[in-house]
Design brief:
By secondary structure, the protein is α+β, with helices and mostly antiparallel strands. It contains 15 helices and 36 strands. Helix 11 crosses helix 12 and helix 13 packs antiparallel against helix 15.
Length: about 600
């Protein structure tokens, strides 16, 4: 196999290099578990990559530029932890002098993690403002606690996809990465954390210059971990990359806040140094293993017409390194929105851009208690489950159970936009906003938070199927949670936080304004989500409490799947009743026909419940 040949070549080259430069090797150590050396563990300084020998020993010559050494966690092991959540997979060099030899050894513990769970969260933006730490602990951390309980004996981990902090408040509010890590220790972060550096995790006090990116990320490397590294969990290889090139260029005459010396600007790219390391790292990985690449800035974006485009300056060279892998998933944050991209140029790649754990940078939680992102997605995380090489995922809202959608009766939205004084003021002062006061009567819309093109959607008005279209427009609920209360309070709002166009909104035209609307989602794993609203459906902060979650097979919508549901279907098939038989509930196998097959599905549900 090609990957085995690649490993052999690398090992041979490392052995050859070792025989020639043994005297000059200045970094060495042992990777062990229970006193026994662990062989074939990749160890690196961010440039050189070597494997431990049969006794778990490694040695190499480092230029010590990175300031640390780290290992790539092998499958079937976990790292030792510091403060219960910090993986000890790296150590800082004791000296920058390459003439000074150093020894760095690490201990592992055995665990069967062929089946495991990873919680991918993004953009926590803790900054000591709006009581954000309390909202974080009562939301995201409580969610992690629930996930740990739910996981049982299955190993569970987390990846935070950058912007743990908010650089502008490092000095203004005295909240840096040091304080973030201290808070996570104090509040007992419940699982192993693998962090990704974001643009807001750089020091804004470092002026623009040749080494700005390196110097501004010094605190990260000191207090958090390396800016790029890899690890294996079970049969999945995970890579963490730094795709921020921090510039912090100053605008002449600009007055910056305390401690900030520039615009905090940056470029989105993976440096050549990282690409060189990544190529070496991936050469050691079986290309039939799922590969998960963790970034802050997404590699790909969706356009307003739902096509895709490269987001990073070097997206294409980066993704070319993944070409030999069968199944590649890119996990990213940064945009504070949810979307999935399947770039046709790289059919082996799926990118999951994950909405912010902070919602709209904690604003909507502060104003209304509802944590909503600017595309209407509830604040949440991606729950990823691996079982061998089989991987599955779904988006989990932090405060809204398992909900995957929100439905809008646009008749009531239309009335609000026309009659509410605050909304009229917003439309007057911000004329580029979408004015739903002009939308066609009897329109319905729905937001599918984690939609991707592998999903199937059906919508009915009563029992009549409706045609729908995907639309690039504003989510009405975010308007209620940020724009309206902020404008009502201050007479203005910041366009930085305002409602954005969403890539996962859908619109249909109903025949009436009174019959109920039901939407069915079927994801790529066959999970079915059903939600219904009665009309008129309210447009207010409590509107989701009047949505009804339904189960396929619960034809009479009484909360149970039982013989009564079979009787309704039979009566409908025999035309013995004029009672409506909700199509999307009765069509249990989603073949768009109600027949004996659906009855068999209900019988199976009853027997196996």
């Amino acid at each position: 196999m090609r990957w085995m040949v690649a490993i052999s070549l690398i090992v041979m080259s490392l052995l050859a290099a070792g025989s020639m430069t043994c005297a000059a090797q200045n970094v060495s150590g042992t990777i062990s578990c229970g006193g026994q050396g662990v062989p074939d563990v990749a160890v690196s300084d961010g440039s050189v990559v070597v494997l431990t020998d049969a006794n778990g020993h490694y040695s190499f010559t480092s230029d010590k530029h990175s300031g640390y050494v780290f290992y790539s966690l092998p499958s079937g092991y976990e790292p030792m932890l510091s403060s219960s959540f910090i993986p000890v997979f790296w150590e800082r060099f004791m000296s920058s002098d390459t003439a000074v030899p150093e020894e760095h050894s690490f201990s592992l513990r055995r665990v069967n993690n062929d089946k495991h769970i990873v919680i991918f969260g993004a953009d926590t933006h803790l900054a000591r403002r709006f009581n954000d730490v309390s909202m974080f602990t009562n939301g995201f951390l409580d969610g992690l606690d629930d996930e740990v309980s739910r996981a049982g004996d299955v190993p569970i981990y987390s990846v935070l996809l950058g912007d743990l902090t908010w650089d502008v408040f490092w000095y203004q509010n005295n909240y840096t990465l040091t304080h973030f890590m201290a808070d996570m220790r104090f509040y007992q972060y419940p699982v192993t954390m693998w962090p990704v550096i974001g643009n807001h995790d750089h020091d804004p006090a470092v002026p623009a210059g040749a080494n700005t990116d390196w110097e501004s990320s010094a605190l990260w490397r000191k207090k958090v971990c390396p800016t790029y590294y890899s690890f294996n969990l079970g049969r999945v290889h995970y890579v963490v990359l730094d795709d921020i090139v921090y510039l912090n260029e100053a605008t002449p005459g600009e007055n910056y806040s305390e401690g900030v010396v520039g615009d905090r600007n940056y470029e989105g790219a993976v440096t050549a140094e990282q690409l060189a390391w990544l190529e070496k790292d991936l050469a050691l990985v079986d290309p039939h293993m799922p590969l998960v690449v963790c970034l802050h800035i997404p590699a790909w974006s969706l356009t307003s017409s739902f096509g895709y485009r490269a987001r990073l300056d070097n997206t294409y060279p980066l993704c070319a390194l993944f070409s030999k892998f069968d199944n590649v998933h890119i996990m990213s944050g940064h945009t504070h929105s949810n979307y999935t991209v399947h770039p046709k140029v790289y059919p082996n790649i799926t990118e999951h851009n994950i909405a912010a754990a902070s919602g709209t940078l904690w604003w909507t939680g502060y104003l209304t208690g509802y944590h909503i992102c600017q595309d209407g997605t509830p604040a949440g995380y991606l729950r990823w489950t691996a079982s061998g090489k089989d991987v599955r995922w779904y988006y989990k809202p932090i405060h809204e159970g398992e909900s995957q959608m929100r439905l809008y009766d646009m008749n009531t939205v239309k009335t609000f936009y026309r009659n509410n004084a605050t909304m009229r003021g917003i439309l007057r002062d911000y004329p580029s906003r979408v004015n739903y006061g002009n939308i066609e009567s009897n329109t319905v819309m729905f937001n599918v938070f984690a939609y991707n093109t592998n999903w199937r959607i059906d919508i009915c008005e009563g029992d009549s199927a409706l045609e729908y279209s995907r639309v690039y427009t504003e989510d009405p609920f975010h308007t209620l949670t940020y724009d309206v209360p902020r404008y009502a309070d201050a007479g203005y709002y910041s366009t930085y936080y305002t409602t954005n166009n969403s890539t996962h909104l859908f619109k249909a035209r109903a025949v009436t304004g009174t019959r109920p609307i039901t939407v069915r989602l079927i994801d790529e794993f066959g999970n079915i989500y059903l939600k219904s609203i009665k009309r008129p459906h309210p447009y207010n902060l409590q509107m989701e409490q009047q949505e009804t979650d339904l189960m396929a097979g619960d034809v009479n919508a009484d909360g149970n799947v039982n013989i009564a549901d079979i009787n309704v279907i039979i009566a409908t098939l025999l035309e013995q009743t004029h009672q409506s038989c909700p199509m999307l509930l009765a069509d249990c196998n989603a073949d768009n026909v109600i027949n004996i097959s659906d009855i068999n599905v209900i019988i199976s549900l009853i027997i196996n419940r």
